[in-house]
Amino acid sequence: MADLIVQSAVKEQIEGQNVASDFYDALDEKVASILEDASRRAEENDRKTVQVRDL
User: Fold this and answer.
1) Cα 5 to chain centroid, rounded
2) pLDDT(20) > 60
3) d(CA 55, CA 37)
């Protein structure tokens, strides 16, 4: 699986807290799932462009 998130950006966003190493893998899986769902919705609506409404 490709890394979809940037660890330094996550740490910056939740500054002041530590981040467990396995958190990044779980977050990456969650983002991948969201992207797959959005892509499926676009296809179901006969579009090749994923749009915000697909989220």
Assistant:
1) 7
2) yes
3) 8
